Amino acid sequence: MAHVFVVYRRTNPHPQVKHVVDALVAAHGPQRIVTEISGLRGATGYRQEVAATIARSAGVIVVLGPDFISSGDALGRGLLDDREDPLRIEIAAALKMRPNGTYFALVGGLEMPPANALPPPLRAMPRTAWVMLGGGNPFEEGVQQFVTIAAGLLSGSIRRTRLMIAAGVAVFVLLCVLFAVFMSQTSGSGGLF
Hints:
Elements: E1 4-7, H1 15-28, E2 33-34, H2 43-56, E3 59-64, H3 86-97, E4 102-106, E5 129-132, H4 139-155, H5 157-188
């Protein structure tokens, strides 16, 4: 059964982050919306579990709150600077494994940070699909947009649409090449007739 992996900071999540996650689970069920990684928290074991979960998923939805950049540990070090931070590991893996199948929901006033404000494995984030929920957009409409994105991922319609576009481009390129070959052959022989 296809599932969508939902990435968010699970320790003390922002209320709007939790609301988006809960709405996804309520709409599609806990079997189809994976919100936890079951496995070892050791660096290698956890990374392998994350990679396996993403590989089996139809796509990834990352829900980030206003403390995404500023979250720190008890010593004041930024969590995203920690290579072992689960959120960093999960986002980096999603960007690497599913660059066209990762969608970001930004809540609580968070704006997409510029690439240079992010650790190197996360610098592709601003180039992905992302939506700010709230602000100028009604929050609940944004939540429903992500419920719809999840439905599309689960049904395969987003993937099918991308494949159809890719196939269409490939056919167009092939026709252009064939036309160019045909024209080069006919121009050398003095014309078509």
